[in-house]
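U., I forgot to send this yesterday:
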Amino acid sequence: MKKIEAIIRKTKFEEVKDALLAADIEWFSYYDVRGVGKARQGRIYRGVVYDTSVIERTLVSIIVRDKNVERTVEAIQKAAYTGEIGDGRIFIINVEDAIRIRTGDRGDTALYNAEQEK
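Result:
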């Protein structure tokens, strides 16, 4: 199992969500996050200087079975791409175990409903 975390532009979230659903990734979490990038400039609005080095993004967090890693990464990468600086990052992290609280299922079977695959 892998945990995939993607930091993407807020404006690309709906496209990424649709791409994940099209790739049969039906469950994920997302969070509004802020980060600091390389850009260090101030914007002036009505005579007040605002720091624009803090960047607002969306963090998408998904746990998938090993067989779904590449399709998930490809869906995110294609949907989040603009070709400009600041498109984001994708991180792939090993997950040791997962436990479904309701049934006690462990491992890969905790991530999906086996009944639905029959």
